[in-house]
Amino acid sequence: MKIGPETVVQFHYTLRNAEGEELETSRGDDPTAYLHGADNIIPGLEKAMVDHAAGDVFTVEVAPEDAYGEVDPSRQQRVPVKHLLFKGKLKPGMQVLLNTERGRVPVTVVKAGRHSADIDTNHPLAGQTLSFDIEITDVRAASAEEVAHGHAHGPGGHHHH
């Protein structure tokens, strides 16, 4: 079966940046699962998946506009340190969580002061060209429930409790 609308895809990936450094990988764990056509993964990766089948191994380069977008300078702001969740000493470059009315969001510390910090709310991978080494492990038809919920269920997918 080929990947297309209303298929559930399981795949392993290794994500690298433009310099070839490994940023994350699913290997050694369960494959990741997603419902194709439901915006579960970044657009550039989803486009590259079309028409592939189980057993396919390939590498895809994804430009920032098809991944996490360009860096938006207006997304830097100053916040009281008490709104940040972190361990140890707050330092520039750290990934921390910011408490917002919509829940916790990951942010990057640009500058740390005693009472306030300058943070960047852009996705940590914004502005980067990403390279994914993909191995498709399984492709199956999505269930009616998965289509209704907009995501894959089961191993590597969404678990309802």
Automatic annotation (TrEMBL):
<dbReference type="Pfam" id="PF00254">
    <property type="entry name" value="FKBP_C"/>
</dbReference>
<keyword id="KW-0143">Chaperone</keyword>
<dbReference type="GO" id="GO:0042026">
    <property type="term" value="P:protein refolding"/>
</dbReference>
<dbReference type="InterPro" id="IPR001179">
    <property type="entry name" value="PPIase_FKBP_dom"/>
</dbReference>
<feature type="domain" description="PPIase FKBP-type">
    <location>
        <begin position="6"/>
        <end position="80"/>
    </location>
</feature>
<comment type="function">
    <text>Also involved in hydrogenase metallocenter assembly, probably by participating in the nickel insertion step. This function in hydrogenase biosynthesis requires chaperone activity and the presence of the metal-binding domain, but not PPIase activity.</text>
</comment>
<dbReference type="GO" id="GO:0005737">
    <property type="term" value="C:cytoplasm"/>
</dbReference>
<keyword id="KW-0963">Cytoplasm</keyword>
<dbReference type="GO" id="GO:0003755">
    <property type="term" value="F:peptidyl-prolyl cis-trans isomerase activity"/>
</dbReference>
<protein>
    <recommendedName>
        <fullName>Peptidyl-prolyl cis-trans isomerase</fullName>
        <ecNumber>5.2.1.8</ecNumber>
    </recommendedName>
</protein>
<keyword id="KW-0413">Isomerase</keyword>
<comment type="similarity">
    <text>Belongs to the FKBP-type PPIase family.</text>
</comment>
<dbReference type="InterPro" id="IPR046357">
    <property type="entry name" value="PPIase_dom_sf"/>
</dbReference>
<keyword id="KW-0697">Rotamase</keyword>
